[in-house]
TrEMBL record:
Swiss-Prot/TrEMBL catalytic activity: thymidine + phosphate = 2-deoxy-alpha-D-ribose 1-phosphate + thymine; uridine + phosphate = alpha-D-ribose 1-phosphate + uracil; xanthosine + phosphate = alpha-D-ribose 1-phosphate + xanthine; adenosine + phosphate = alpha-D-ribose 1-phosphate + adenine
Superkingdom to which the source organism belongs: Bacteria
Keywords: Glycosyltransferase, Transferase
InterPro entries hit by this protein: Ppnp, RmlC-like_jellyroll, RmlC_Cupin_sf
Protein name: Pyrimidine/purine nucleoside phosphorylase
EC number(s) stated in the UniProt entry for this protein: 2.4.2.1, 2.4.2.2
Gene Ontology molecular function: guanosine phosphorylase activity; purine-nucleoside phosphorylase activity; thymidine phosphorylase activity; uridine phosphorylase activity
The keyword Transferase appears for this protein: yes
Pfam families cross-referenced by the UniProt entry: Ppnp (PF06865)
Species for this entry: Anaerobium acetethylicum
Function, in words: Catalyzes the phosphorolysis of diverse nucleosides, yielding D-ribose 1-phosphate and the respective free bases. Can use uridine, adenosine, guanosine, cytidine, thymidine, inosine and xanthosine as substrates. Also catalyzes the reverse reactions.
Entry keyword Phosphoprotein: no
Family classification: Belongs to the nucleoside phosphorylase PpnP family.
Length: 102
C-alpha cells in the first residue's frame, strides 16, 4: 500500500538505544501512523492512544494487556493495543511495522 498526500516528520522516533526507530506519517484527514523497524530484543511500550500494529516483515511475540502468555505475530498479521496500557514484545531477528493510531 502506498500513502498519498501525506506529511512525513523528518525527525525519527528513537527508542531503546536505537534498537527501535520509526517515522511519523500525518494524513490530510488527521490520521497518524508510524512506520518503523525493530532490531532483536525485548521491549515494553506504553500507549496513550489505542493502536493497531501491522507486521510488514519479520515476526514478534507479543503479550497484550490482560494476557499471561506471548502470541507470535508474523508478516501480514496485525493486533490491537488499547489506549492507556502497556504491552511487551520479543523480537528474535527484526520487525518492519506500521502502527496506526486511533
Amino acid at each position: 500500500m502506498d500513502f498519498k498526500n501525506v506529511t512525513v516528520v523528518k525527525k525519527a522516533n528513537v527508542y531503546f538505544d536505537g534498537k527501535v526507530t520509526s517515522r511519523t506519517v500525518l494524513f490530510e484527514n488527521g490520521e497518524r501512523k508510524t512506520l518503523g523497524f525493530m532490531m532483536a530484543g525485548e521491549y515494553e511500550f506504553s500507549t496513550a492512544a489505542s493502536e493497531n500494529m501491522e507486521i510488514l516483515g519479520g515476526d514478534m511475540s507479543v503479550m497484550l494487556p490482560g494476557e499471561t502468555e506471548y502470541t507470535l505475530y508474523t508478516a501480514g498479521q496485525n493486533y490491537d493495543v488499547p489506549a492507556d496500557s502497556s504491552f511487551k514484545m520479543i523480537v528474535e531477528k527484526y520487525v518492519d511495522y506500521c502502527c496506526s493510531y486511533k
